[in-house]
Amino acid sequence: MHNLDSDSEDELPPGWEEKPTEDGNVYFVNTCNNKIQWTHPRTGHKKVIPKDLPFGWTKTVDENGKPLYVQTETGNKTYVDPRLAFAKEEKKHVNDFRQRFDGSSTAFQVLHGVDLSGKYALITGCNAGIGFETAKSLARHGCNILLANRNMEATQQAIEQIVKETKTSEDNLKSIQLDLSSLNSVKKCAMAVKTVFSDHLDILILNAGVFGLPYEETEDKLDRTFQVNHLSHMYFTLLLEPLLKKGSRVVFVSSESHRMASLKNVFVKQNLAHPKEQYSAMTAYANSKLYNVITAKILSEEWKHKGIAVNSLHPGNMVYTNLSKSWWLYQLLFLLVRPFTKSLQQAAATTVYVATASELEGVTGLYFNNCFYCEEASLARDKDIAKEVFSISLGMIEERVGRENIEKYFEKYCYQNQS
């Protein structure tokens, strides 16, 4: 069960101090009677800290031999072990975590005190909107980011804007072309990513999406909404699997619209893309977002043994972004409700939280909304439906670009379904 206590319980009672050990444990001292204990005097829980100092910190001693910590970049000195800023409750179960943020929280608040130096992230669809705000927030905290977008000119402008607003080094920001309406482009991009991140990828955020499009076929002869929002992201993620290591996090940006999905005739026709003769922009979008949640759940099970976390999320109700630019009616609707929408910083908060929060280490297969987990739609929880969706998706990929580098999933999901 999840502990929903507020953060105020973490505050120590008067007269208590927390102290670190070299091996990453925290103990508590009552300065009035010198009582020492391993559990927090309010919560009764044990706390742990990283064994290594945060990036940029060194340990020395003062003239009296007392431990002194120095921030090498700023020269600031403190007698307080900086690891204590990253103290967290020791979990009895991987899914034990408290709700620290809500729908009004911003990405800035979520990342307070977080150091992402040395981390590598790839974000799709991040030259504007929520994706841009997510990239900017991660960059501000030292993350190396690869921005994967279709429009390279707009991406370079986004990089320049991030550098200007965050003062981060442009060396930490790179761009790569990715056209999600082309599976060949996805394959080409994945190969290029492996040359950029030859070692590992810590964070993969599948953020790009389209909404409200009229029926339009891609070069792969698929409904554009279906391919951009689901199939290409699924294929891209499978191709990048070799870069994902223990501790890596994969984040599928879905939507609460997945609850409005309709799978009528999908399994009869063995085709997940919305048909032209019955096309509905809203249903096509809702279905694609359901497939996001399903894909995240399938891959969370596939990669759990490797320590790779895969989760999905909803970024926020009625967020005002350029996602609604596709149809004038949606533009009008968003204009009317704009005073009641989330800001982009608030909308990016859940993505940033799922991608970076220390308490989510090892947490996988969940769906998040407003910076906390919630139950998905019943269609997303049906394991038989999930396997069928995944199997059909694999078949649609194979039909267009083959099965190179993803053969093992065909053996498990497609051959079994044929037998």
TrEMBL record:
Residue numbers spanned by region Disordered: 1-23
Pfam families membership: adh_short, WW
WW domain location: 10-43, 51-84
GO cellular component, one term: lysosome
This protein's name: WW domain-containing oxidoreductase
UniProt subcellular location: Golgi apparatus; Lysosome
Biased composition (Acidic residues): 1-12
Domain of life: Eukaryota
Single GO term (MF): oxidoreductase activity
CDD domains according to UniProt: WW (cd00201)
GO process annotations (BP): apoptotic process; Wnt signaling pathway
Keywords on record: Apoptosis, Golgi apparatus, Lysosome, Oxidoreductase, Wnt signaling pathway
Predominant location: Golgi
